[in-house]
């Protein structure tokens, strides 16, 4: 598996999403196998979507030609409205491209370490630990307080 350094800037949603878009646009579309390509959202929070932050891992190809495109942590509500907007755009892009959406939750220490210096073994473990996720949980606005529930 080919793994480059994470794209984008931690905490900078639009910069990171634009870097991901450029890299994914450059990817050989023949390399994208819809049965194997996937978007994996990596977070260090479970059950707290209102404050979650995500890095993105997109896998393309298979076998020795498989490529992992990893982002810096910059998506989701932890990074404000821009972070939520970038997350929504990323997930919608993946849906339109036919990629499966998955999620992996890591401990805070592992999250920082894997995203700072990803290696093939850790990325493979991250992929294996991922679970299917409904794209709507990332694209549907969440109420900010109980008054908004009604």
UniProtKB/TrEMBL annotation:
Residues 22-35 have a biased composition (Basic and acidic residues). It comes from Deinococcus sp. VB142. InterPro entries: DUF3197, TTHA1528-like_sf. This is DUF3197 domain-containing protein. It holds the Pfam family DUF3197. Residues 1-35 are annotated as: Disordered. It comes from the Bacteria.
